[in-house]
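ok posting inputs for the calcium ion job
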Amino acid sequence: MERAALVLAAGAGTRMKSKKPKVAHEILGKPLVNWVIDAARAAGMDEVVTVVGHGRQIVEPLVAGTTVVEQKERKGTADAVAAAAEALAHLDGSVVVLSGDCPLITPATIAALAELRETADAAAVVLTMKPDNPFGYGRIVRDEAGQVLRIVEQKDATAEEAAITECNSGFYCFDAKFLFEALGQVDSNNAQGEFYLTDVIAIGRAAGRAVMALESPDAQECLGVNSRIQLAEATAVLQQRINNAHMAAGVTMWAPDQVWIGPDVKIAPDVELLPQVMLLGTTSIGEDSVIGPNCRLTDTVVGAGCTIDETVAIEAQVDDGATCGPRAYLRPGAHLCEKAKAGTHVEIKKSTVGKGSKVPHLSYVGDATIGEGVNLGAGTITCNYDGKHKHPTVIGDDVFVGSSTMLVAPVTIGEGATIGAGSVITKDVSPHTLGLGRARQVEIEGWKPKA
Ligand code: UD1
Ligand code: CA
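and the output
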């Protein structure tokens, strides 16, 4: 049977106190709404439709991979679903309705909602929960036989109904044909003057169709993010879920609560993560590498057997056996080849450091191509920028650069050359020569006047 997911993401989220729409706020580098969409995809949904509204210019690009529909005015959850009526008119099967601000929902639960509805041929299955404090949630009203009758919102509930502890999580699976017909019968005669999606439950019952409840296996899954505090709570849950999965797959963490790993990061077995490590974006780490403490790696590829200590790396590549830090900064396009080293207080941008080459201390390397077996002495700087343009530096294999050298680009240092310490190199240096670009030391006699 065909299955679609409908993600509601039109709300403003005023309690976030933000200029950004709520669903655009990120957890571990991924916006809230994308956690929900990705869970729906992982649950095998054939199609995902997203309802946008508030902050549409910001939300729409985030959900570009889905069918996007707009809810023009926020008139309630039934109205939000109705915005997708045309987009889903073709659907003969199940539609799972998800909240774009509930990032903890799992693919297993989404699939379970659809399975149950289809097996029972129910009009609707609602995911329910029993939170510690049910205040504010819709309550599940059942008949004497224990069958679901309807859902009543907090603001419309009698004292007796408000005492019910079983709550609506806001996740549902509907028979699509039934849902879009039933929406026509929903009105706004309630305490909030809104069109409630929850009214569809009673409409299903009245039509003689089965309506069912599925209790959430874990109330945490239904946590909605309405405030920055809940954003932090949800972050902690996802951090733990991801870390547990990596540890189960053979990754060591000294202190998992001090490690933050994005959902798309790949880590090989026998990697060791020390405290205060953030691995974000599409970062990947090869076998036996040790990362940390104090590292932030974004969209960076690290090979096997690397040591990365106190390093910030963005869009960089570190090949097998290379070492980095403490206190290295690898900027976009930095590439350390096999067994290369970027040491302490070293910044590298858009440059290749060849196999086994070393930049051990206090250097800036930008727009450079460095061969194999090269050693750049402490304080070597590529002067790549003349105030208008960036220029390249090319350093051949086995070059030795003495400390505190300025390489004024564009410049090429030939293979096997040596550069004397303290040089300012403004012209190319031929292979296997000694390049010196500094004033000769002189001694001036009688400098100190006689008494
Ligand atoms: C809703 C349920 C309630 C349930 C709770 C769970 C209704 C009437 N009530 O209440 O039973 O316990 O969720 O969290 O559905 N949205 C739109 N357009 C709108 C209104 C809402 O897109 O016009 C979106 C919101 O951005 C949000 C979701 O729908 O993602 C839920 O809306 P919200 O107003 O937060 O519903 P609740 O009042 O919390
Ligand atoms: Ca509301």
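notes: DSSP finds eight helices and 39 strands in the chain. The longest strand covers residues 167-175.
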